[in-house]
Amino acid sequence: MKSGTGTVVVITAQHDATADPVVLALSERGVDVVRFDTAEFPARATLAASLTGSGWGGALHVGTRTIDLDSVTSVWWRRPGEFRLPEEWTATTRAFAASEARAGLLGVLGSLPVRWINHPAANLAVNYKPMQLAVAATAGLDPPATIITTDPIQARTFTEYHNAAGREVIYKALGGGVYTADSAAAIPTTVVDPATLDDSISSTAVLLQERIKKAYEVRLTVVGRRMFAAAIHAGSDATRLDFRADYGALTYGRVSIPERIVTGVTALMERFGLLFGALDFAVSPDGRWRFFEINANGQYHWLEQHLPDLGITDALVDALSEGHA
Fold first, then answer.
1. Per mean pLDDT, which range of 8-17, 25-34, 180-189, 302-311 is the poorest?
2. Domains of the chain by range and CATH?
3. What is the spatial order of strands in the sheet that 65-68 belongs to?
4. What's the pTM?
């Protein structure tokens, strides 16, 4: 691993309010930092790389900047845009060119022996919610009872069992939402009405989960070995079900992290090879922490607007400027 004396590359969209303070803080520390959006490649950024005995060498040219691949010490894979290709090309040509651009650019950058927060391959693996839940369960993070099914009978049996015990069942999208090149739409968490569980369940994989009674929720953000927990208190029925429903109805505070949660989260992060993660927990009225999910590229900037001393930005700047694991 290289020392922290070279270049930090921040790969994200040009308009990213979360990345802005990190880039500014790195510059103020005298760190050589380059911001790069993959949407600029290959139209406005060029790659010239050669395979050597020690890996890939060469340069990435971004606007007026030239990034010597040998100088890179860390990369923040934040939220880059899709490759932009000429509209006049056929759909087949555009798809082929985008695939080749992805394989070439990310293949070269991804092979660099530098600190990644996080490596795209690690992000891809953890995006599968069933894998998250399985690892969380083995790590002692206590996720809710869950099924993933295409069987209407199993769906009804699961729902009726929990309803009989006084617990509601909720539906969550496995992928989080519907995303295209032109739009993004999150699928809200919804309470399941057993009467609606018909044969349409068999049309695709469906995740059903017991609804946890919450005193509050926690967004636990991890940077390396450092953990930052923010309590999120719902102020409406909608936000008690899904806090994304109305951010204006939320209030925030600091909360201590139980040792068993620290141990379990550390194991989960190591299992997926992540240096950054945003984890969601519910805390029940009796103080029991229940794992919901981890987003390897989750948002945190809005938390620091409410809790300015939270420290996530400073931790990211430290990790990127150190340039070693």
1. 180-189
2. 7-115 (3.40.50), 145-210 (3.30.1490), 216-296 (3.30.470.20)
3. 45-52, 55-62, 65-68
4. 0.89
